[in-house]
Specification:
Arc Repressor Mutant, subunit A, SH3 type barrels, five-stranded antiparallel β-sheet, 9 helices
Length: about 325
């Protein structure tokens, strides 16, 4: 291959696979590892933002924030496209339905912000899942991403028999050493919470039935003294410098994570229970992030940082 073809293939690899090190790229491109840096320079000269991560687990990755920003879908556009699936499915006479779904999948796949975050709330770490439980969690996560119902075989501790029903999964939550799914039960015709446990959930299968997520659904309504999650959650707002948003999103922050583009960065909002854990994670990012709200937590965090600084100035 000539240099142009190699550069194009390198760009495609970074786009498709994410971060790759020099040896991995050299193997795929069938070239000497010493040439990779030169190919990277040519791509940067052409206007592509190829970033390099130093260290043992480093490599190159494509910063897609600079790739055709005008083609980026907004959240409202993504929601509208996802809702259009249900509209099309409600018209079985439409002969191009399968082509519509495959085409829409390609559009959403091409937009970098449609990659979902795991919908887990984790208040403790180290919980061991059995292989069957882990597979059921992954099945529900996939169903949430695709807006598809799951068929669940479930038996409560008070039931003698196992019941089978459809569930539209909305949220996966980890609370008090157990995983739960919150969703709309077609059997109960209401939102219910079910536990991932081989003693209760006997089977979980993905179905072809698609659903429209209720825009009025609010996970906060399942948090409180009368709900499964009895903790008190706080809605945090954190401003992140744009160039560090990828690193920021590698961390788990909380429930209902959202991003809003601002002139001076990306405003990230989410719900979390323990402010001290949020403070610890914020401290790792130093001046790359700024706690904006709530004001009480912002003031508390500022006092902590000032106390640390004062201690070292003495």
């Amino acid at each position: 291959m000539n240099r142009s073809a190699i550069c194009i293939k390198m760009l495609m690899l970074l786009k498709a696979r994410g971060k790759m090190n020099t040896l991995e790229l050299a193997k795929e491109l069938e070239t000497n590892p010493r040439n990779i840096r030169e190919f990277k320079k040519e791509l940067v000269t052409a206007g592509y933002n190829i970033q390099e991560v130093k260290g043992r687990y480093g490599g190159y990755y494509l910063d897609e924030d600079c790739l055709f920003p005008s083609l980026k879908l907004t959240k409202d556009e993504i929601d509208a496209l996802n809702e259009s699936r249900g509209i099309v499915d409600s018209h079985p006479e439409f002969v191009g339905r399968d082509f519509f779904h495959s085409g829409l999948d390609k559009v959403l796949c091409a937009d970098k912000d449609t990659k979902s975050m795991m919908h887990y709330y984790v208040n403790q770490t180290g919980l061991a899942l059995s292989l069957q439980e882990y597979n059921m969690v992954q099945t529900v996560q996939l169903a949430m991403d695709r807006k598809q119902s799951v068929e669940i075989c479930y038996q409560t501790l008070s039931q003698k028999d196992v019941s089978t029903f459809l569930l539209d999964p909305y949220e996966i939550i980890h609370y008090k050493n157990a995983y739960y799914v919150i969703g709309f039960s077609h059997k109960r015709n209401e939102y219910r919470t079910y536990r991932f446990s081989i003693q209760r959930m006997k089977q979980c299968k993905l179905t072809d039935k698609r659903f429209l997520r209720d825009s009025s659904f609010n996970v906060a309504s399942f948090i409180g003294k009368e709900s499964l999650i009895k903790a008190s959650f706080i809605r945090f707002e954190i401003l992140v410098k744009t160039e560090f948003i990828r690193m920021f999103k590698e961390q788990y922050w909380g429930l209902d994570f959202k991003e809003i583009k601002k002139n001076d960065g990306i405003l990230c909002t989410f719900m979390a229970e323990d402010p001290n854990k949020i403070y610890q994670q914020l401290f790792l990012f130093q001046d790359k992030v700024k706690l904006v709200a709530p004001l009480d937590n912002k003031n508390e965090y500022c006092r902590m940082v000032k106390d640390i600084l004062h201690m070292y100035q003495e």
